[in-house]
Amino acid sequence: MKIVILVMLLCYSFAFSSGDTTIHTNNWAVLVCTSRFWFNYRHMANTLSLYRTVKRLGIPDERIILMLADDMACNARNEYPAQVFNNENHKLNLYGDNVEVDYRGYEVTVENFLRVLTGRHENAVPRSKRLLSDEGSHILLYMTGHGGDEFLKFQDAEELQSHDLADAVKQMKEKRRFKELMIMVDTCQAATLFNQLQSPGVLAIGSSLKGENSYSHHLDSDVGVSVVDRFTYYTLAFFERLNIYDNASLNSLFRSYDPKLLMSTAYYRTDLYQPHLAEVPVTNFFGSVMETIHTDSVYKAFSSKTSNNKINSEMPVNQLSEHDELQKANIPNDELKTEKQKCPYTQMRVDLHEKLEKFENVDTVVNLGIAVMVFVVMISSSLL
Amino acid sequence: MATEKRDKEEEEVKTDDGSLKIKPRPIVQLGIFLVAHSPVFSVVFSAAGVLALLILPLLAKNTYISENALMPGSARSMLSNRDVSDGSKLVKDIKNYRLNHEGQVQKLIGKYMSEMGAEVYYQKFHPEGNQFHPLHFFSGPDSYTLLDNVSCASYGVNVAGIIRAPRGDGKESIVLVTPYDFINGGDYEALSLGITGTLFSLLARVTWLSKDIIWLVADSRYGDYRPVAAWLTEYHSPSFKDSDLLKCGELNTADKFRRAGTMAAALVLKVDGRSERFEDTLSIYAEASNGQMPNLDLINVVNYLAVHRQGFYVKVEKVVSLLSSSWLKIIGEIFEAVGKLAHTLNPDWNFGIPTADYLEGSATLASSLYSQALGIPTGPHGAFRDYQVDAITLKVSPRFPPDSKTRQHDFFLRGAKLLEGTIRSVNNLLEKFHQSFFLYLLTSPSKFISVGVYMIAFALLVASLPMVAASLYIDGCKALNNSTLNPAGNFKSWKWLDAAKQVFALHLFGLIVTLLPYFICQVPGQHSPSNRSIMWGTTSSSLLLITFATIPGCSPFSSRRHGTNWAVLKSVTISAAFIGLCLMSIINFATAEIGALLLVPTCLIVQPIKPALRSRRIKSLLGAFCSMVLLTIGFPVMLFAISKGLFGEGLVGLSLGGEFWTWLESLWAWKSATYLYIGMVHLPCWLLCLCILFHPS
Q1: Packing angle between helix B106-115 and helix B81-100, nearest 10 degrees?
Q2: In this predicted model, what pLDDT tens digit does every residue of A53-62 receive, in sequence order?
Q3: Distance from CA of B526 to the nearest CA of A (A)
Q4: If you measure CA to CA, which chain A residue comes closest to B73?
Q5: Fewer CB within 10 Å, N side or C side of chain B?
Q6: B164 forms bridges with which residues in the sheet?
Q7: Is the ipTM of this complex over 0.90?
Q8: What is the separation, in whole angstroms, between the first and last Cα of chain A?
Q9: How far, CA to CA in Å, does B385 sit from each of B121, B196, B232, B295, B686?
Q10: The pTM is what?
Q11: Which residues of B are less than 8 Å from A225 in CB distance?
């Protein structure tokens, strides 16, 4: 019995490393516009529109890494100084007061982009420019610019290849930087950029298949340039109908793309992504909506109701009454919570702890444990 | 690998019957084959070259905007009626001012510009044109030195206004030029000021400028080109010494000459005459000195906006006389028939074009070739090309008389919209024009032939020359070996030396003849062009006689003993012509192409006339006759006369020499490499062909 439990302990530590059991705790967005020059106005407008959308749906600025390769707002050719529009009706200025651009101009390079994804920064890079995600993060990676067969052009000078992207994602997975990653790309031949992806938990959607172009949606004849791309335009049109509490699924987003309107075929790759798309709300990536789980204590490692009860039973009586009041206050919450909603990680620890509590002679367990460990060490060293 | 190699060796040994002679490589074999059959191939290649030239209008591609940044026509025009009324007011003011006052209209224009919010300045310049100097040919623009003892008798005053881009970095600019004769300018000329005034009124208030706008009103009293060139010179090479000109006249121009960064593009606007067609006509002139062209994108943008937005009838120059030529029509019909036949065979082959299109294309192509070959800029835009600025001249002909007020409003609006669109496109540029072609020939405003295509015609024409030279050399060596009793076996490879001496002497002569006009110009006293041409002709011919007398074996009239074998002489001549043509094709392709059309047949066909006459065979007589005709045409003066006749300009009989002189003067004044080509390639080769024709063999 005891040995079984020890093996369970070992297993537990392995299970922990796989990370599948972690729950979705936070949302991040990395929004990248890779092309500069005035005539690529629409790429910046695309990115800023998406920035506005994810912010509206609840991802805070500190969790959005916005990379803009050029500054159209302050371009001398811009008829509306310091403003960027994604529609010719000029109703919505995307470049308002609260736009935090993290990487701008020539900072937007393939190197910096890969550094953001993989988290390998120099020490001096401030926290606001880092993607500080963890194993519970859902990340939205949106990229727009000029692409081709398995590459995406950065700054008219360099390219991000599909291998580079796949490699970065793999590193992220190994470093447990995300739980789920959604890559959305609006470029020509966008689908080819996903060819090399292998890491689980990655969902990819691109605006066009191999050999197809992604077209701009319309031209603003006051500004004199195209202001938004078709794919992004219809993505935004979908999200404009939603608010933060809506339950629209990813499937409904993907079905909203009409090849006739896009003039290209939107492509999505789901083979690396387990959940059923119809059951995943879009806010899983484009917003920051998640279940709240009540925890009693932030700092205690084994924080669970049942364990607390056990510990409390040994407490002095005068403290007990006080604690009971707290318990009563917590009861309504407890009832609302279904069994499903309980964090599996916490649940497992609770179970283990309960079993450990039942042992009468703790010393024997410890001694046995040491013996087993010596045994294991001997075997492993002899194998080596 | 080793075994394979051995097999190969064995094979070779077997095939060569034991001898170790290695088979020559295929390319060498091909060369030998071509040289051995050079007469056939030279005829085939030359014919193919001419055919390729004739076929060019069929191969013309539609122009397209190559640079993404340009985006012509994507922005809505912002011109308002207020701008147009500003422009109209300017024209009216100028008219009234000139009726009532004598003197400086420039001030009025300057006042208008500064009211618009531009920085205004005046520039005085000397009308003195370019002078021929042999060393100035490839030296680029003059480092225009200010003369100390200038007279105030004649000078021009340019007005320039600069609108600074409100949020631009001030490092780039776009130039608008309107040549205007402030003394004699007609009503039509004033319209160009009206259009630009309208545009200027708009540009002064827009927020989208990234480049500064310079409006130069050039004083075209002394020609269109000179004031622009003078302004550009001062713009690019500032002088730190006060010119004496500043003190001349009442207008004080001592205020600083202002600049506005490097020029991205320049547009010269002229309004002249009434349009013959129902629509307003826009003629585009692009050729700068030595056949240099502005980037094709600039023409494309203007053409696109003029045709698709403003409804102008756009044209480029064409040789009108070719439109009615019957032989070209027949060729066009043949091509049309062949095109149709090909289309029936394979529906994908769509190279046939209607005869009318072919005629139009050929006439435009001929004019394009001619203007490039001449090397003289076709307008003030040529001055910009010297500074690597892309520029074109737009000549607008309205379809109404200049005093019609109602039409004028519409005309200003459309003209200014065209310029606004072009400027907005250029304003979008991030770099210099570089995306599209610089080497091209136009067959219509929207069709072009790129360098890769038109080079083929020239390459085919010239390809036969080295072949024939090689084969003649081999023949000549054989003949020499047979004829001379003392076989010069040791110096076998030096046989071409005598011939080379002659060729070199005549090329040297050509160089001296080329430089002679410089010295003739230095002769004191006033001489008429005909007198000068006579002086030139006599000195040249006496020099030629001296050359023939002093260098033995050079003259065609020397005895046979001294004379070289004509075949070797011809071989070296052809080589020299080949090198000359190839060099010229790099400097100015159009000159080389037209030159090759003349020089290649002459060089190939020429043969000593004496044996031909002696043999009395029809074939050789015909050959002799052809070479006589070609040589007569090939004489530069004759060529000039023929080209004059071809372009429909009447000859004034006896003054041919004088006209020729004036023509050459214009060539060297514009630093045209064509002049060098005529003097240093064409003339020596022509003389050498004469020598061969009269060779006493």
Answers
A1: 150
A2: 999 888 889 9
A3: 57
A4: A224
A5: N
A6: none
A7: no
A8: 29
A9: 24, 22, 11, 10, 33
A10: 0.81
A11: 71, 74
